[in-house]
Amino acid sequence: MIPGAMISLWVLRCYITFRHEAVGETHRVLNKSGLAVFYEPVENSKVFDFIQNVFPAGKRGAQWYRPSILERKLWSMYMETLDDRTLTNQELILAGTQFKTVKIRSYGFLIRLVRLIGERYKDALTAIDNVLLAILPPLRRLCQTVLIEYQK
Q1: By three-state DSSP, how is residue 109 classified?
Q2: pLDDT-based confidence at 1, cuts 50/70/90?
Q3: In whole numbers, what is the pLDDT of the chain averaged over residues?
Q4: Average pLDDT, stretch 139-145?
Q5: Whether the Cβ atoms of residue 52 and residue 21 lie closer than 8 Å to each other
Q6: Are 64 and 106 in contact (CB under 8 A)?
Q7: For 129, how many CA atoms within 13 A lie in the half-sphere containing its CB?
Q8: How far apart are CA 87 and CA 76, in angstroms?
């Protein structure tokens, strides 16, 4: 482990109400050259967000079920009870303003298709993602996950 490092998964999404406080507390507890790394889901594209919400996620009645946006009553009830949401890159950058540097690395562009075409294509989609994101950096804005580094 790196001295003065902190690594977290999906912390900022789960506590959206407190994301500035969470990042502020992270800044407070790190030593003066500390590094905080978060792996977070993001949604920077309103088009992808809409398309994703057209399809329900999970099984009806399950704890993590998300109805389709087309099921208006269920969607409305879902949104009323939602206490977290996916952040944008800009929100993650703004949350880390007290840090010296903030770096974002994006992952998961084509992996979004897994729910439509099946899990067996996951490795192939990941490999294609790596090539596409290296060749076409603007596509990073459409990725679903980021690794964000806050350097003190």
Answers
A1: coil
A2: very low
A3: 82
A4: 89
A5: no
A6: no
A7: 22
A8: 20
Averaged pLDDT for residues 48-61:
83
Token duo for residue 95:
């949350």
Task: Name the amino acid, one letter, at 120.
Answer: R
What does the pLDDT read at residue 9?
Answer: 52
CB-based burial label for 143 (10 Å; 0-12, 13-18, 19+): buried
**Cα–Cα distance, 92 to 105 (Å, whole number):** 12
Q: What is the 3-state secondary structure (H, E, C) of 54-78?
A: HCCECCCCCCCCECCCCCHHHHHHH
Cβ atoms of 16 and 31 closer than 8 Å: no
The reported pTM is 0.71
Contact 36, 5 (CB under 8 A): yes
Listed in order, strand segments (DSSP E) in the chain are: 5-9, 35-41, 101-107, 145-151
